[in-house]
């Protein structure tokens, strides 16, 4: 009886059929997770680059058109028109523009206001100041987006709100040039 059990146990342990299934089952989730994270990093990089480029172009327009006082909505529209991949930009972009006093420095808030996607209600701006000639201004844009693949390792590692939106923040500083009244 014991000999029969030993023989069957040796045959079972020596059998190599199906031996490729175990490594495949163990490695597949890791490889798929890495592939999804790679796609997520690419999408995040493209979104960040587009937001930063559009913000820089908008700031350049502000600096060149010294006689124009742009409103919050005009700047938001200019930034959103300068991007092609920021889905729902008008709804999930929030701007903050504050004056920076170089002589009496006060740190701006460390984190800009972002759109609250939980309620999708309009909340007042923390700060949006037009500024005057020779004044240093800080313009921050916060764009909220949903992850390309919520199952990826990167999407799970990024901070997000209750609705699953993640923030991309772009910052630009500029000096209001005086109007070009007559050289």
List keywords for this structure.
rod-shaped; 183 residues; three-stranded antiparallel sheet; alpha+beta; single chain
Care to describe what's here?
- There is one protein chain.
- By secondary structure, the protein is of the alpha+beta class.
- Helix content is 42%, strand content 16%.
- A 3-stranded antiparallel β-sheet has the order 1-2-3.
- α2 packs across α3.
Strand content: 15-25%
End-to-end span in angstroms? Answer: 109 Å
Structural class given helices, strands, pairing? alpha+beta
Beta strand count: 3
- The total of helices stands at 5
Helix content: 40-55%
Q: What is the spatial order of strands in the main beta sheet?
A: 1-2-3
* Radius of gyration, in angstroms, nearest whole number: 27 Å
> What's the helix-strand series?
HHHHEEHE
Low-confidence stretches: 119-124
Mean pLDDT: 80
Largest sheet: 3 strands, antiparallel
What is the overall silhouette? rod-shaped
Question: What would a concise description of this structure say?
Answer:
Helices cover 42% and strands 16% of the residues. It has 183 residues and is α+β, with helices and mostly antiparallel strands. The chain crosses the membrane at residues 20-46.
Blueprint (SSEs and pairs):
Blueprint lengths: L1 H13 L6 H44 L7 H10 L7 H4 E8 L35 E11 L6 H5 L7 E11 L8
Antiparallel strand pairs: 1-2, 2-3
């Amino acid at each position: 009886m014991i000999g029969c059990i030993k023989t069957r146990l040796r045959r079972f342990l020596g059998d190599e059929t199906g031996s490729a299934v175990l490594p495949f089952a163990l490695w597949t989730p890791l490889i798929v997770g890495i592939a999804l994270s790679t796609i997520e990093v690419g999408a995040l990089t493209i979104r960040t680059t587009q937001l930063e480029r559009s913000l820089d172009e908008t700031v350049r327009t502000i600096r060149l058109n010294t006689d124009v006082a742009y409103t919050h909505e005009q700047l938001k529209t200019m930034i959103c028109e300068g991007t092609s991949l920021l889905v729902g930009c008008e709804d999930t972009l929030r701007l903050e523009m504050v004056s920076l006093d170089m002589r009496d420095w006060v740190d701006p808030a460390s984190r800009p206001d972002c759109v609250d996607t939980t309620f999708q209600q309009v909340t007042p701006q923390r700060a949006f100041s037009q500024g005057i000639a020779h004044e240093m201004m800080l313009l921050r844009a916060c764009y909220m987006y949903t992850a390309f693949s919520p199952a990826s390792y990167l999407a799970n590692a990024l901070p997000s709100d209750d609705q699953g939106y993640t923030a991309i923040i772009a910052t630009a500083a500029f000096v209001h040039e005086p109007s070009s009244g007559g050289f």
